[in-house]
Write a structure and sequence with these properties.
The protein is mainly alpha-helical. 98% of the residues lie in helices and 0% in strands. The longest helix has 104 residues.
Length: 106
């Protein structure tokens, strides 16, 4: 009977120690998870800062590109108007040519 009680006590002690180990392991896991979350947050901030730096460096180029594109739009608009005027002039020339042709025939 006494041996059984000693055996139970030893088993209880072993179980208690194992539970303590498990609890400590969970604490360690939580600490590591907090560290991972902290690093993830720092990385997010760093990425955001890097993105802002890159955007700031690229901004003058983007502004210049927008200026060039706007200039090209204006030029295209002018060329389109010029083409329309040229087409109208060509129609006038064709009509004059037809009239001349008709007047030479008659």
């Amino acid at each position: 009977e006494n041996d059984r009680q000693n055996l139970r006590k030893e088993e209880g002690d072993i179980i208690m120690k194992e539970r303590e180990k498990i609890a400590e392991a969970w604490k360690e896991i939580r600490r590591e998870q907090e560290r991972v979350d902290d690093l993830r947050h720092q990385l997010h901030i760093k990425n955001k800062e890097e993105f802002e730096k890159m955007r700031a460096r690229a901004m003058p180029d983007l502004v210049e590109m927008e200026r060039v594109v706007e200039g090209l739009r204006v030029e295209l608009r002018l060329l389109t108007e010029e083409k329309k005027m040229w087409e109208m002039d060509m129609k006038k020339v064709e009509l004059l040519h037809e009239q001349l042709h008709l007047s030479l025939i008659h």
